[in-house]
Design brief:
Elements (H helix, E strand, L loop, with lengths): L5 H8 L44 H16 L8 E4 L1 H12 L7 E4 L9 H11 L3 H5 L3 H6 L7 E6 L5 H5 L1 H11 L3 E6 L6 H19 L2
Parallel strand pairs: 1-2, 2-3, 3-4
Helix pairs in contact: 1-9
Organism: Photobacterium profundum (strain SS9)
Protein name: S-formylglutathione hydrolase
Function: Serine hydrolase involved in the detoxification of formaldehyde.
């Protein structure tokens, strides 16, 4: 976001931006040698399995703890929106759909749309949540979207040249899930964009204006 110059537009729109980390940090925090688990990827769940459950409560951190800190220390109103990229996009969508009363809008860049059915998500969910697929479904955007009764306006941008699109991100499944429940999803696919910074840099302004329009309602 910093490279994309988001500060200027946020100031223009009167929007405060808060960017939480992907996972707990520190020398005493359990980690994994692979990037897709541990301090590289908390997946925004409340872990139930040892040793992860001691610190990896990222869902509660984003939904409850962090907003309380912000509201205590900064002069903001009660309205909020949520956004993220890749695993963060997964987290943003899940959190918005599980807490529709808390968010005016949600957006994501290249989100992991159906984590319980792709390798990245299956690895993380097994480690953090065990083998209980009902628990997995409570953190799966497609599963939640298919059953949604209360909607948060959603925008997703996806690069068509993303090397992870078919095997890990599966945005087509996200579109199908939205059709089942009639979820208000705007899915934008972009030719020649991959999973990198350039997608965010190109379309972050549209995302901020999307959120600002809903925050001001």
């Amino acid at each position: 976001m910093q490279k994309a110059g988001v500060q200027r537009l946020a100031a223009e729109l009167g929007v405060a931006i808060v960017a939480p980390d992907t996972s707990p940090r520190g020398d005493d925090i359990v980690d994994d040698v692979e990037h897709g688990l541990g301090q590289g990827a908390g997946f925004y769940v409340n872990a139930t399995q040892a040793p992860w459950n001691r610190h990896y409560q990222m869902y509660d951190y984003v939904v409850d703890e962090l907003p309380e800190l912000i509201e205590t220390h900064f002069p903001i109103n009660e309205k909020s929106a949520i956004s993220g990229h890749s695993m963060g996009g997964h987290g943003a969508l899940v959190i918005a759909m599980r807490n529709p009363e808390r968010y005016q809008s949600v957006s994501a860049f290249s989100p992991i749309s159906n984590p319980m059915d792709v390798p990245w998500g299956q690895k993380a969910f097994t480690a953090y949540l065990g083998q209980d697929r009902e628990s997995w479904a409570s953190y799966d955007t497609c599963a939640l979207m298919r059953k949604a009764k209360h909607f948060v306006p959603a925008r997703v941008d996806q690069g068509e040249s993303d090397g992870f699109l078919d095997d890990q991100l599966t945005s087509k499944k996200l579109s199908d899930a939205a059709k089942v429940s009639g979820y208000p999803l705007e899915l934008n696919q972009h030719v020649d964009y991959d999973h990198s910074y350039y997608l965010i840099s190109s379309f972050i302004e549209q995302h901020l204006r999307f959120h600002a329009s809903h925050l001001k309602q």
